[in-house]
Amino acid sequence: MSARSNWCNTHRGPTERAIAVAVIEVNSGPGGTVWSCPDCVARYGIVPLDEQSPDHPASRIQYRTPGSPRDADGASGGR
Ligand SMILES: [Zn+2]
Q: In angstroms, what is the span from residue 42 Cα to ligand 1's centroid?
């Protein structure tokens, strides 16, 4: 699909391996992928696009919330 990037958008520097963490949608535009290096993913607890739940909007970076078994987006409870 999209070309891999060698740029980490999180610490704004080059990286050897970039992980897609979000997709920015632009009206009638190509949009853009937000990349993060493994370091930043681990440091900030970012959930890679691959592991994000389908319910989560791809345009927003999802962070792991320490201490909570599932996403703590207030989406707990029955539905
Ligand atoms: Zn980084």
A: 9
50 secondary structure, DSSP code: G
Length of the chain: 79
pLDDT in tens, 34-79: 999 999 999 999 999 999 988 988 889 999 976 555 555 555 555 4
In the chain, where the domains are located: 7-63
Cα–Cα separations (whole angstroms), residue 43 to 5, 46, 50: 20, 8, 18
What element of type H or E holds 8?
A: strand 7-8
Report the separation in Å between the CA atom of 77 and the middle of ligand 1, taken as the mean of its atom positions: 34
